[in-house]
Amino acid sequence: MKSKITFAVAFLLFTYNFSQAQGKLNRAKEDLSGSSSNSNSSSRSSWSDDADGNDGIGYFDSVFVEIAYQATLGILFGEMQPRYFFEYPYSDGLHGEYAFPGEDVPLKRSQLIISNTFFASGKEFYGNDLKLNFRFIPIFGVEASHLHFFEQDPKVELGVSSFMLNYYRVREQNVTAYWGVGITHVGNGVDDTGFAYQVGVDVYLNKPISLGASWKQSLINDSSIDEFKLLARYHMKRLSLHGGFHNYKLGSVSINAMGFGVDYRF
């Protein structure tokens, strides 16, 4: 009996030490590299079987689908009322990014923001997030970003690059809210690309402070990369400093980190 207990304890210790030696990023790479062909094919097969078993959609079902479709479009897009950009948040009073037509101050039709954020989780794990956000009109914009993770022991890196098309659903003087869709590519051994979506909101409370929250998910094979951020910004004309909480989920690996960085508006 004692030998069995000793063997079990030794096995658990070995498993724990191997997991620790493997490192977070190596485990994340394994999760993100998993094949999804079997599950996708089975899902398609079951969907086809269900479709074959139903020759058509009933009248009330089609009406319900139409109502849901219209309601969803209303929620997602809303009314596309004209807006402009202030030169920068709080440039002319207690306001955020967006200005109504007729404001008697300098206004812009487009806006470019470059930001960089450094984050760390303990002494062994850190990363950097470089982002370029260009709104060519007040309602639409593109966003390119590169998120890079570093681990000290063992020394491993993971790079995540995204390209998103954003729609700015709420464009009020003190609130900006958006959603976006795009693609994400994961390198450093994973070397795969998947669909990505995100939502976010920024609230301009009082000069010179604003608060922001964002969520982004990138679907890679049978797994995902999830990013959640809660940030506070201190605005100094076109320049702003930001800092706050970051949570990243790379497959089954969850990382909590604190970050700080800088934004500049052109």
TrEMBL record:
Residues 33-48 have a biased composition (Low complexity). It comes from the Bacteria. Keywords: Signal. Residues 1-21 form the signal peptide. Residues 29-50 are annotated as: Disordered. This is Outer membrane protein beta-barrel domain-containing protein.
